[in-house]
Design brief:
80% of the residues lie in helices and 0% in strands. The chain is mostly helical.
Length: 204
Amino acid sequence: MTWLAAVTTGATPGAAGQAIGYPTLFLLVFLGALVPVVPTGALVSSAAVVAFHQTAPLSLLFVFVTASAAAFLGDIALYWLGRRGMKSKNGSRWLEALRSRAPEERLSQAQGKLADHGVAVLVLSRLVPAGRIPVMLACLMAEWPLRRFIRGNLPACLAWAVTYQLIGILGGSLFKEPWQGVVAAIALTVAISAAPTVWKRVRS
């Protein structure tokens, strides 16, 4: 039984389930970094809820290490693919995917903030809903070398993993059953993701 199954049954996964669950979490978060349609924040929060209810003392640490490493490697892979597309005469489907998810207004804002604040904007971009892709594209257009992107992306992924894990811990602490905490954590992550769009519509 993996932690994915545990959230629906309310059971606590054992060592065998953890051996399957952590690689599953890594793969899903890694793919979510490459294809920005997978709700990786909700995945991390759900895994943290289950880890919170486990008796194993290092479960939460394993979730943190797994999620941050997967996000970090996924971002690096996407940035590398984007750099290849920038250098290619015909571009690439990865670069086109990045551009399609970065509206002109958001991209212009990201470019301005990146020019003014540098790496700090990259760190904050992972904590702002829909902020990662415009800033990553701004880094590509500013011709940041991969090494510089890596230096800024490491603390960004660590902060992101901590934030969504804390959301999961909060959900897990409020309810006795893991599945109830997972529902609460997912609802909170969805609310956080939707907040900027709702606020923009209210203002307009």
